[in-house]
Amino acid sequence: MTAINAVTELTTQGDIGILTLNSPPVNALSANVRDGIYEGIKAAVADPAIRAIVLICEGRTFIAGADISEFGGAQKGASLFEAQSMIEDSPKPVIAAIHGTALGGGLEVALTCHYRIAVPSARCGLPEVNLGLLPGAGGTQRLPRIVGAQRALEMVTSGQHVPAEECHRMGLVDEMAKEGNLKADAIAFAEKIVGEHRPLKKVRDLNDKVEADRKHPEIFADFRKANARKFRGFKAPEYNIQCVEAAVNLPFDEGMQVERKLFMELLTGPQSAAQRYAFFAERLANKIPDVPDDTPVRKIAKVGIIGAGTMGGGIAMNFLNAGIPVTIVEVQQEALDRGLKVVRGNYERSAKNGRFTMDEVDKRMGLLSPALSQDALADCDLVIEAVFERMDVKKEIFTNLDRICKPGAILATNTSALNIDEIGDVTSRPQDVIGLHFFSPANVMRLLEIVRTAKTAPDVIATSMKLAKTIGKVAVLVGVAPGFVGNRMLFQRGREAQKLLMEGAMPWDVDRVLYDFGFPMGPFAMSDLAGLDIGWVKETSKGETIRDQLCELDRRGQKTGAGYYDYDENRNAKPSPVTEKIVKDFVAKSGANPRAISDEEILERTLYAMVNEGAKILEEKKAIRASDIDVVWLNGYGWPIYRGGPMHWADSIGLDKVLAKLKEFEATMGDVWTPSPLLEKLVAEGKGFKDLK
Ligand code: 3HC
Fold it and tell me: Which domains does the chain have, with CATH numbers?
C-alpha cells in the first residue's frame, strides 16, 4: 500500500492498481483530491507491476463534483484538467468504479477514464446548471459524444441524476457491478480489459454521435423553444446549450475552449454566486446552534392528521409517499370521504402521467386510515392539526390530544398565523408542541417552516428537522410571530402592492415588474389563483376594498373566470376594464392624484419593504440567520433562485443604498418605512446581512 497523500492511497491486487480516494463527506474535488488523482495515476503508470487502474472512492459516494466552497479562491495543487489529462493519457486503462453519485466534476473525471463500472444504486449527472454553471471540465464536450446531443441537452439543462441502469443503457456506464460488490467487480472488469487487450477508449475521440447530430441543427432551436418558459431569466441553461452545440459543430479542442470561456463567464457572474449561496444556505438551515447534530431523535413510525381538507390531505401525502402510515381524522363522514377521494385522485393522476404504477397508488392508499374520532390517534408518534384558523378550536383540539396521545408523542399545528405558545400552554406537555407550517399544495411545495415555541424541547426540534428531510422538504426553523417568517414578509409586499394601486398603478403593472424580476407571478395574479374570497364573507361585505368589490361582482379569481384579471377558457389572463374602473373609482374617492409610477419604484416599494421586515425578524431573533430567510423565500414563495433570496439580493445591491431608499420612503410615507435598527447598524459598520454571526 502506498499513501499518495492524506486522502489518497494506491494498493494493488494482482496486476491491478487500486487508487482509492477518501475525502469525506462527498469526495469533492478539493486540492488534495486533485493532487491525489494526479500523483496516484502517475505512480500507478510508473509501477511496472500494474497493468490497469481502478479509481474508486471510500465513504458514501464517488466524487460528487468540484469543491464548491473553493470557487472564487486561488487554486492550489494540480488543476482538474491536469488530473484528467493524467487519466486520459495514461497508457494503462483506467476504470472508474462508481457508487453513490458521480456528479459534475466527478462524472467529468469518470468520463476521462477509459471505462466505467457502477452499482445499480449509483446515479450520474451534471448538475452544474443548478449552481448557475455549466460542466467546466469537458462534460459538455464528452457527454454528447456518448449519449448524443438531445439527451446531453436534457441532462445538462436539468441537472438530473440519472440511475446507473439507465446510464448503462445509454453507454455512459460500460459495465454493471453487483450492489455491495463494487471493488471486486471493478477489479474483475479491469482484469477482463487487460486479458482481452481492449483498447484505451477515449471519449474525446468518439465522433459518430456528434457527426450524426450535425445533420440536425434543428435539435437546438426546438429544444430552446420547448423549454423557453422553464429557462426564463436564467443564464446557465442557454450557455449549456451553446456548449453542446459547440460539441456537435466543432473539433473537440475548440469545443473545450468554448466551454472554458462560457464557464468562466458564469462562474464570475452574479447568478451563479446567488445559486451557490442558495446551495449552502439550504444546508446551513439544518444547523441549529442550541440543538447539536447528535441530539437524540424520537421515532416517528405513525402519523396522525386532524383535518382532511386540502391542507390535511396534502400533508398526509408527504408521509404516505415516504411509506409512513397515517391516520386521518375528520368530524363528518362526508368530509372524510371527500378528503380521501381527493388524495386518491391526486395519486391516480400521477399514475396516469407515468410517475408510478396503479399498484403503487393502492399501496400508498393502504397506508392511510380514516377515522371519525381523535381517539384513533392514541398510538401516533406525531399528530399534526390542520383545521381552520380559530384559536378556540385549536385549543380544544390540543386539550383533547393531551388526554388522548401517548407520552412522548409530538403534537404539531399547521397554523400559519396563530400563537403556538398559547396553543402549547393548554397542554400539560408544552415541550412536545411545535408548529409544522406546510405550504399549499402541501404535497408539492418544498418549504416547511418549523416553528419552535419558548418551550419546545430540543429533541422535538431535531426530530422535526430530520423528518422534514425524510419527506423531502426543505426545513427552516423559525420563532413564533404573526405570519412567522414567510407570510410576515409577504404581508409587507402585499401592503405596498395595494398602496401602489391607490397611487396610480394597475395590478398588471405591479405584476409585470415582479414577473420580470423573476417571480413566477405577481401578487395580484397570485391572489386570483388562490381565490380572492379567502377570508371574504358575502353577508358582511360592504365594498370597502377593491377586493370586496371584485368579490361582490363574483370576480373571485381564476375559478370564476375573473378576478383582478379576466380569464379566457384556457386560464390566460388579460387586464380587465372592470378592475381598472374599480381601481380608478377608489383612487378618485380617496382624493388622491394618480401619478405615473416607474418600474423601479414598484420594485423598490414591494421588495425593500420585505428586506426591512426581514431585518426586523433577525433583530427579534425569529430567524436564526439571514440565509434562513432566503431559504424560506426561495422554496416557498417563488423568489428567483438566481437572485439568491431577499437578504442576499439586498446585500448584492448594497445595504447603504437600501437604507437610503427606506429613509426617503419614510420621509414621504411615514412610519411603516422606518428602517430596522439592525439595518442602520450594519450600514454604519459597512457590513451586510452575510456578515451577521
Ligand atoms: N463541494 C463542497 N461541498 C459539498 C459538495 C461540493 N460539490 N457537495 C456536497 N457538499 C457538502 C455539503 O455542503 C454538506 O456539507 P455539510 O455537511 O457541512 O452541510 C455535505 O457535503 C453533505 O451534503 P448534503 O447534505 O447535500 O448530502 P446529501 O447526501 O443529501 O447529498 C449530494 C449528497 C447529492 C452529493 C449533494 O451534496 C449534492 O448535490 N452536491 C452537489 C453536487 C454538485 O452540484 N456537483 C457539481 C459541482 S460544480 C462542478 O463540479 C464544476 C465542474 O464542472 C468543474
Answer: 2-267 (3.90.226.10), 303-481 (3.40.50.720), 504-590 (1.10.1040.10)
